[in-house]
């Protein structure tokens, strides 16, 4: 499995944090003046930013996590829904996150068409960039990381080896055992969990939901790889009861960038 370098971690973490403010000046972070496209959700709020530079190979897709009451309520839709009819993927995923991918995306650009879903809008934006020889990295926080896994898998199916890497922060599980077995990008996926972030243990249904990729647990001044969930939960239980949500903030992930080496 490939490794995640410190500079890569820091870059993706900062971009995830900056996805939340309404205004993001991409030129400050090395992207072209015209190197940003925004994808809205059904409410007309920013959900995804697509960022690129014409002289660099990598396009970065940054997906926001839950940022409204309605988004958080979707986490309660814990039954699974098939991706086969629309995405052509042979597994089912969390129904709430399925909705995030399939909701209508309100137009944000003159080229956007009414009625397109979020995943269709994203594919439409990425296709011409892929045709220019660029590869795609996907990063997301919370539910944004979860749906990023599915979109990355979908894109990899249509354009083999187009995904450079997937990096998620504070991500809940999205699929079952079939998803875990069929997901194609496990060796290019990094799931970062910070201390006692409660969201990384959700949904709280044993053996119904499974994670994929390499887990990097930032805990007590160290970085642990692929720590079993039961062990991570046991070590974290006392602190979890005291401060369950403070470790879910992107600012905490930013502060822990020093876990990664400079290579």
From TrEMBL:
Database matches in InterPro entries: AB_hydrolase_fold (IPR029058), Fungal_lipase-type (IPR002921), Sec_MonoDiacylglyc_Lipase (IPR051218)
This protein's superkingdom? Answer: Bacteria
Q: Which residues form the Fungal lipase-type domain?
A: 60-205
Read off the Gene3D superfamilies from this record: alpha/beta hydrolase (3.40.50.1820)
BP GO annotations = lipid metabolic process
The protein in question is named: Lipase
Species name = Vibrio algivorus
């Amino acid at each position: 499995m490939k490794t995640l370098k410190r500079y890569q971690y820091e870059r993706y973490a900062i971009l995830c944090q900056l996805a939340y403010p309404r205004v993001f000046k991409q030129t400050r972070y090395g992207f072209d003046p015209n190197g940003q496209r925004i994808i809205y959700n059904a409410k007309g709020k920013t959900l995804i930013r697509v960022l690129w530079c014409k002289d660099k190979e990598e396009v970065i897709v940054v997906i926001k996590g839950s940022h409204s009451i309605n988004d958080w309520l979707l986490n309660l839709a814990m039954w699974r829904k098939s991706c086969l009819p629309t995405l052509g993927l042979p597994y089912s995923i969390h129904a709430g996150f399925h909705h995030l991918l399939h909701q209508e995306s309100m137009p944000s650009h003159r080229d956007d068409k009414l009625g397109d879903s979020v995943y269709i809008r994203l594919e439409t934006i990425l296709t011409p960039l892929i045709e220019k020889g660029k590869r795609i990295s996907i990063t997301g926080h919370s539910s944004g990381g979860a749906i990023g896994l599915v979109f990355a898998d979908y894109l990899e199916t249509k354009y083999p080896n187009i995904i450079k890497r997937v990096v998620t922060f504070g991500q809940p599980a999205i699929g079952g055992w079939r998803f875990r077995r069929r997901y194609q990008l496990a060796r290019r996926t990094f799931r970062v969990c910070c201390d006692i972030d409660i969201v990384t243990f959700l949904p709280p249904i044993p053996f119904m939901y499974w994670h994929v990729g390499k887990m990097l647990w930032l805990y007590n001044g160290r970085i642990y790889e692929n720590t079993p969930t039961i062990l991570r939960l046991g070590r974290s239980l006392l602190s979890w009861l005291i401060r369950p949500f403070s470790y879910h903030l992107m600012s905490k992930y930013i502060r822990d960038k020093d876990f990664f080496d400079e290579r």
